[in-house]
Amino acid sequence: MGKDFKNINISSDLLRSVENLGFTEMTAIQEKVIIPAMEGRNILGSSSTGSGKTLAFLMPVLERTSWEDMKASLMVLAPSRELALQIRDDYDTLGRYKKLKAVALYGKHPFKEEEASLKNRHHAICGTPGRVLDHIKRGTLDTSAIRFLVIDEVDELISRGFRDDVLAIARSLKSVRQTLMFSATIGEEVRGIASELLDDYIVIESEDEGKLNIEVEHFKVENKDKFKALLSLIYGRKPRSMIIFVNTKDECGRLKDDLEKKNIDCLKIHGGMLQEDRLKAMEAFKARQVPYLVATDVAARGIDVRDLDISLSYDFPVEKESYVHRMGRTGRNYREGSAIYFIAEHDGKNVRDVENFIGRSLGEIQEMNYGPLRTGKDSFREFQKELRKNRPKKTSVHKDITKIYINGGKKKKIRPMDIAGTLHSIPGIEPEDIGIIDVQENGSYIDILNGKGDIAIQGLSESKIKGKELRVEKARK
Predict the structure, then answer these.
(1) Residue-wise pLDDT tens for the chain (477 aa)?
(2) Same domain membership, residue 406 and residue 273
(3) Helicase ATP-binding domain: which residues (predicted)?
(4) Other Cβ atoms within 10 Å of 470 Cβ, number
């Protein structure tokens, strides 16, 4: 681990958000990226997933962004809806005390809803290339103030066919002063995009996965024995949190059903599911409501789970890049984790492709121990009962925040500054107690920080906002 966040020149609001997340020291990639990024350097970085990369590129931008900015200054391009939403949430969390807010744009999400969100004040855009380009072409996305461009998981964007969209978007941004690009691996195509977009940039290489706390294991498993091998692993190791990767959505559904028939709690997530169902499954898994998630690569890219015990490749990856990305689901932020790969008789070519890609042999391929299949079932049942009994409730990172609803918005000519002005007049409410103010058509939502929610509700109830008496209550949403 590296320097303390207190030792770098960041604002107290940003430092407070970082500390609320439980971080005190920078990871290696954060230490390498944050300082040159704060200096305005263009960066092409490679980093193992889970090493703190998102915070590394968001912090320098957040530090140079103000609530007073009337237009978005940051655009982040990501290969999946889930990752775009994850980055949006991270931006909102880190920017909470600076009152900064991001908007997510992604396919299969109602365009009109996104268009409405873009009309409210926001400071960042996090999106998938296709949808972002669609907004640009329709004129619903104002990019005139975008100063910072982040292109995340460049290798994945290329493999999904987004190369031309990414270049088109980047070239349409006329005010960009700094570009930060990140990729799990930096190959010829990744360097090619960087060279097309940038005249001057520095390359920051991350540590290899050996420096992370990830134990990597490969097991020889015949295709017909895979499910038995999975049960042996679950019964024997009793992981508290595990992602089980498969290569197709059909296999994803089948495997989830087979596990449930064995009375094992699990969820599934794949690209063919409705977006709402995918997000519900992802949130339940991240909140540890259910311990196991069967997933395809497409759907799992945005899942950032602390303390994931095992990333299991039930199906050996077909795409060589997925070998690295799947490994990065565990061992995040330098915690211990295991990456396990089942290798069947037909996986020979894919194994050779991965070895050529990572530049070394996978090493010893172990024989699977099926003993726990016979001896571990009863003890696993007791273990799962304990998991169910201690299933955590969802909690917010910011426990001192109250969201307030006011039944007045744009239709009543209410503006954020009107609400802020009224709040400032309430005894006991200081400027630092007022979070994001989101004025919508028929109502407004306000984040009140530092446990001052009741004071704000009482004060607003006894006050008029722009001469109007409005209903004030704790938000249900």
Answers:
(1) 457 887 788 888 898 888 877 777 788 788 889 999 999 999 999 876 556 788 999 999 999 999 988 899 999 999 988 889 989 989 998 998 899 999 999 988 899 999 999 988 899 999 999 999 999 999 999 999 999 999 999 988 998 889 999 999 999 999 999 999 998 888 889 999 999 999 899 999 865 444 456 789 999 999 999 999 999 999 999 999 999 999 999 999 999 999 999 999 999 998 788 767 877 888 788 778 899 999 998 655 555 566 688 999 999 998 887 887 787 666 554 456 789 999 999 999 999 998 887 778 898 899 999 999 999 999 999 999 999 988 876 544 445 788 999 999 988 988 888 898 899 889 888 877 788 788 888 899 998 988 899 999 999 999 989 888 899 999 875
(2) no
(3) 34-204
(4) 21
Pull the structure tokens for residue 406.
């006011």
Residues paired with 218 in a beta bridge: 341
Asked if 186 and 316 sit in the same domain, the reply is: no
136: tokens are 């640009």
- Residue 359 and residue 439 in one domain: no
Phi, psi of 293 (to 5 degrees): -130, 120
The answer to whether the CB of 337 falls within 8 A of the CB of 209 is no
Q: Check which CATH number belongs to the domain holding 434 and give it.
A: 3.30.70.330
CATH number at residue 244: 3.40.50.300
Q: Where are the alpha helices (DSSP H) in 154-248?
A: 154-159, 163-172, 188-197, 226-237
Contact 362, 86 (CB under 8 A): no
Say what the pTM is.
0.63
Q: Which domain holds residue 326?
A: 210-389
Instruction: Collect all residues with Cβ–Cβ distance below 8 Å to 359 and sequence separation of at least 6.
Output: none
Looking at the DSSP bridge assignments, the partners of residue 214 are: 337
Give the separation between CA 72 and CA 70, rounded to whole angstroms: 7
